[in-house]
Design a protein that fits this description.
The protein is built from nine helices and no strands. The chain is an all-alpha fold. It comes from Prevotella pectinovora.
């Protein structure tokens, strides 16, 4: 199958799954913004997205997209390293026109995966997983607001989430326009436009998450005073 056997096919899978994950991140960020205005409203969304059949199906689909994206990312990276052979060790400076993020997508990807595991532990484990299994957790599984407060009252978590978001920003800014290029939407005019759109969209997306982190971190500090 050409999606697996050809480099172009693997890039198409990477691009399609990447765009789907960006759409999910947009929804997730919009949902988190609600917590800034009303804890009750945020918890209503959490309860609606609890361990219901549609939420479980969506979670399984999201997990499949993430696994596909990660597997194909490593696959392409190893393929590129193999194609370059020993030449990759001879490069000491970044080639002109090549972005820093492009050369460090593997490192950025590893940071993002570690951040994702931390996020799953702090939220999914205590919410959907706890509701499914009935394990004892600190708060009600639908009380997502309480878990946000708990998580970002810890300075270590705040720093780790900021590092995660910075890595995510670099990953998205490169990945967005790279996906458009794979789809063939990279004419002379639109090449620069997609790069600008990608940077703007990724910045707004990551800022949305960052505002939530910093808001509840500040709230936690005020609560300690």
């Amino acid at each position: 199958m050409w999606l697996c056997n050809s480099s172009i096919g693997r890039k198409v899978v990477m691009s399609v799954t990447g765009v789907a994950l960006i759409l999910f991140l947009t929804f997730h960020m919009s949902m988190n913004i609600v917590a800034l205005f009303s804890g009750d409203a945020y918890n209503m969304i959490c309860e609606f997205l609890g361990a219901n059949w549609y939420a479980l199906v969506a979670t399984a689909g999201l997990a499949a997209l993430a696994v596909l994206h990660i597997v194909y990312a490593f696959w392409l990276t190893m393929q590129n390293r193999k194609a370059r052979g020993n030449e990759r060790y001879a490069v000491t400076t970044r080639p002109q026109g090549v972005e820093w993020a492009s050369q460090n997508m593997l490192v950025l990807g590893i940071i993002i995966i570690l951040g994702l595991l931390l996020h799953l532990f702090n939220f999914w484990y205590n919410m959907m997983f706890a509701e499914l299994t009935g394990i004892a957790v600190a708060h009600h599984p639908a009380d997502g607001y309480a878990y946000i407060v708990d998580t970002f009252s810890c300075p270590v978590y705040v720093v780790l989430y900021i590092v995660w978001l910075v890595a995510l920003w670099f990953h998205l800014t490169h990945g967005f326009w790279s996906a458009m290029q794979t789809f063939g939407w990279n004419g002379k005019v639109w090449y620069c436009r997609w790069k600008v759109i990608g940077i703007a969209y990724s910045t707004l997306l990551c800022l949305g998450f960052l505002v939530v982190v910093l808001w509840f971190a500040a709230k936690g500090l005020c609560g300690c005073c």
